[in-house]
Amino acid sequence: MRSIPITIPLLLAVLLSPPALAEPGPASGPAPGPCRPFASPAEALATVQAHLTRMGVSYGVDTSGDYPVVSFANQSTNATHLVRVVIDARRGLVYIFLNRYLALPNDDPARDAVLRELMKLNWSLNIGKFEWDPSDGEARFSYCFTTENGVGYEAFDAVVRTLLQTGDRMWPELSRVTEGSR
């Protein structure tokens, strides 16, 4: 996967700029364009596979569960991140996450402090959010979007790259905090 250079001033400008105001008036339905809802789970999977292929990503597919899962590893600057894409065509969702981003078990003495920091980071993020599973301590960095208008390549590419770049940028400090507590 090719890297896209992002400068700190550009990243700060994007993260700190106020959201654009919505245009006045009622919504008039789905955005125009070639995107449309998926006709089937197979079509949804084929679309995600086509996007990843276009991005130059080597991936694996697991269709043994309730939902197709596409996975790939990405060697970034600070870590290798395992990316999973879960496709729920029935509910019209695509869920992308950095799998096992952090381990934060219930008995970790720093758990509450780290979770508080993750929530602070969530507040400042435009794309991506941290989630924590108390059953096994997994913390993920994720993004979920609807597919009522399909999944366009540009949006998919932007979300995957943003998750990877943001997750990798925050990785050194977050991993130090969690590892330092053990």
Explain what you see.
This protein has 182 residues and is an alpha+beta fold. The protein has helices spanning 8-16, 41-54, 111-124, 153-180; strands spanning 60-62, 69-75, 80-88, 93-103, 129-133, 138-146. 36% of the residues lie in helices and 24% in strands. The protein has a six-stranded antiparallel sheet.
Strand-helix topology:
Elements: H1 8-16, H2 41-54, E1 60-62, E2 69-75, E3 80-88, E4 93-103, H3 111-124, E5 129-133, E6 138-146, H4 153-180
Average predicted local confidence, pLDDT: 81
Q: Quick one: overall form? A: globular
Order of strands across the biggest sheet?
A: 1-2-3-4-6-5
Largest beta-sheet details: 6 strands, antiparallel
Derived from helix and strand composition plus strand pairing, the structural class reads alpha+beta
| Radius of gyration, in angstroms, nearest whole number | 18 Å
One letter per element, helices H and strands E, the order comes to HHEEEEHEEH
